[in-house]
């Protein structure tokens, strides 16, 4: 790891001003909103109704874990364009041991595996050069219900069934669709009309449209089948989904319509507690879920950038280095990340000093077309919760592309994910498709600590934007002195492949021109929906006061006690 150093005049000494001094009035970016403060608890998520559900759980005596479960379940109802019961989930859980920021961070990997009936060979023989995006082929075992049940079993305080009751009510009685979700719903409906046909996918149109029409903003939507499914999960503590009546329904529909997911796949599945991985950036430790998650990409990029001196946000040299570091890290990640036992190189090798130094040396004055290195040679929702005792949860769940595969089990409201699309069909690739294997995974929760004490959870949802969002948000906090809300409000960029960079239109025009002069192909976007949607809660270990920020690019909200 790079050496520690004091950086006078930067936020690296305080990570965000509220931990020791007030936020500066003047920042390099004019934030749209003020941060939110609370001492007794906070829930930050992409839907006001879901945030209120989590806040009510805290008010009933639940802890941050209970609030996260209830909020996550509610999000499957009110934001089906990004998550569902048929998706995957990951969590980073900080369990406090005292009031001074001490405690322990736990990681939960609830991503599913490829069905036993699906092989690379059968897809290649059928003429595929990659795993299809829609239909039964990309469907993997859903992990989300197991995440809720396992988090409750290990760390929850309240009865599990009571945590799902608000989501059940929202599904059965209905809710008004929020504006951003309505636009995404309309987009996905148009996409599915072009790509889906037949009995296997008719259930999606029956469940999520009004005679083929997506709901509009403010329109009332109910999902009684999902309410029944949530009730079965609540009553059985998740067992019905994996070894009960819901598993039987999924199996029967799969067999009738040519699917590969069977009840034996569901019955053998268990979520996995994992040891989080981290990298030091300035004086802050950034924590991620280990592979098969892509959080390693964010850590590799931050390690590269930590070797450069900090600068101001509008420095063209700094922005160029960010873009080059992300390209190098992502190229390695897409090449090497899979299940740990399938990876050619370990996490330790990819984060090692000698490999980081060698990759950093590739960052010159001009844009490059990145190639993967050799270490030995040289549609998602995110939420953050916190309680009065200092416990905090960073939680993310997803159906992957929008609603997922387009497969909805009739009468259940279960929209199955298409996560298997990320498997490779190259037999020599680390992430090659194999039965019972977990694929490279885009959804990643993040967490920050300093000197072993908790700062708090953060995340930026949005497919391959996620580690790019993590890097930018961390730098906004640590290098540029932005508060959590300003750190999320600030304009973002994203690497789109080769030398193409997408950048939000609110970025300063001289910076965009400077990047083009260095060889980056700059694509200025007026639509911000593809630039991630984040949430963040940070805690002052001295006072216990939380400071939260929520994403301006969607219908976000923070609810506090």
Structure summarized in a few sentences:
It contains 18 helices and 21 strands.
Layout: helices, strands, pairs:
Elements: E1 36-38, E2 41-45, H1 48-59, H2 64-78, E3 88-96, E4 103-110, H3 120-125, H4 144-155, H5 160-173, E5 175-176, H6 179-195, H7 199-208, E6 220-221, H8 224-236, H9 239-243, H10 245-256, H11 263-267, E7 272-274, E8 277-281, E9 284-288, H12 295-306, H13 316-336, H14 347-350, H15 353-360, E10 380-387, E11 392-398, E12 408-409, E13 414-415, E14 446-450, E15 453-461, H16 466-478, H17 484-489, E16 493-497, E17 500-504, H18 509-517, E18 521-525, E19 533-539, E20 546-550, E21 557-560
Parallel strand pairs: 17-18
Antiparallel strand pairs: 1-20, 2-10, 2-21, 3-4, 3-11, 4-7, 5-6, 8-9, 9-14, 10-11, 12-13, 14-15, 15-19, 16-17, 19-20
Helix pairs in contact: 1-2, 2-4, 2-5, 5-8, 12-13, 12-15, 12-16
């Amino acid at each position: 790891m790079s050496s520690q150093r004091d950086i006078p005049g930067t936020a690296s000494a305080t990570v965000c001003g509220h931990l020791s001094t007030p936020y500066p009035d003047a920042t390099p970016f004019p934030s749209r909103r003020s941060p939110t403060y609370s001492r007794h608890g906070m829930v930050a998520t992409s839907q006001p109704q879901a945030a209120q559900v989590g806040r009510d759980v805290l008010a009933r005596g639940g802890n941050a874990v209970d609030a996260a479960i209830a909020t996550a379940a509610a999000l499957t109802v009110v934001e089906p364009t990004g998550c569902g019961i048929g998706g995957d989930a990951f969590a980073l859980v900080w369990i406090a041991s005292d009031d001074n920021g001490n405690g322990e961070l736990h990681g939960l990997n609830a991503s599913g595996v490829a069905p036993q009936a699906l092989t690379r060979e059968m897809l290649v023989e059928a003429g595929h050069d990659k795993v299809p995006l829609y239909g039964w082929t990309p469907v993997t075992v859903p992990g989300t219900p197991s995440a809720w049940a396992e988090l409750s079993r290990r760390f929850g305080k309240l009865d599990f069934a009571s945590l799902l009751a608000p989501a059940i009510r929202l599904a059965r009685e209905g809710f008004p669709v929020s504006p951003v979700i309505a636009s995404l719903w309309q987009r996905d409906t148009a996409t599915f009309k072009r790509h889906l046909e037949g009995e296997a996918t008719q259930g999606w149109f029956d469940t999520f449209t009004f005679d083929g029409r997506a709901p509009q903003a403010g329109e009332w939507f109910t999902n009684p089948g999902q309410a029944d499914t949530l009730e079965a999960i609540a009553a059985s503590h998740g067992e019905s989904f994996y070894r009960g009546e819901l598993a039987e329904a999924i199996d029967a529909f799969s067999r009738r319509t040519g699917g590969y997911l069977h009840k034996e796949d569901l019955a053998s599945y268990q979520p996995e507690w994992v040891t989080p991985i981290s990298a030091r950036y300035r004086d802050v430790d950034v924590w991620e879920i280990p592979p098969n998650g892509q959080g390693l990409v964010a850590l590799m990029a931050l390690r590269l950038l930590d070797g450069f001196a900090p600068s101001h946000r509008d420095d063209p040299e700094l922005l160029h280095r960010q873009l080059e570091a992300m390209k190098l890290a992502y190229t390695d990640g897409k090449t090497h990340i899979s299940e740990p036992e399938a990876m050619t190189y370990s996490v330790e090798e990819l984060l090692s000093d000698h490999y980081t130094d060698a990759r950093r040396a590739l960052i010159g004055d001009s844009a490059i077309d990145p190639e993967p290195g050799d270490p030995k040679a040289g549609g998602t929702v995110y939420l953050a919760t916190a309680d009065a005792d200092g416990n905090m949860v960073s939680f993310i769940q997803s159906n992957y592309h929008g609603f997922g595969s387009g497969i909805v089990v009739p009468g259940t409201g279960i929209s199955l994910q298409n996560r298997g699309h990320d498997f490779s069909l190259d037999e020599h690739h680390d992430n090659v498709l194999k039965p019972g294997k977990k694929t490279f995974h885009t959804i990643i929760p993040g967490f920050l600590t300093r000197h072993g004490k908790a700062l708090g959870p953060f995340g930026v949802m949005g497919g391959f934007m996620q580690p790019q969002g993590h890097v930018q948000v961390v730098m906004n906090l640590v290098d540029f002195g932005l508060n959590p809300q300003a750190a999320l409000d600030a304009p973002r960029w994203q690497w789109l492949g080769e030398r193409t960079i997408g950048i939000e239109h609110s970025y300063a025009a001289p910076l965009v021109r400077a990047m083009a002069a260095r060889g980056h192909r700059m694509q200025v976007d007026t639509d911000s929906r593809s630039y991630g949607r984040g949430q963040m809660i940070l805690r002052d270990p001295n006072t216990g006061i939380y400071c939260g920020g929520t994403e301006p690019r969607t219908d976000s909200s923070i609810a506090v006690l």
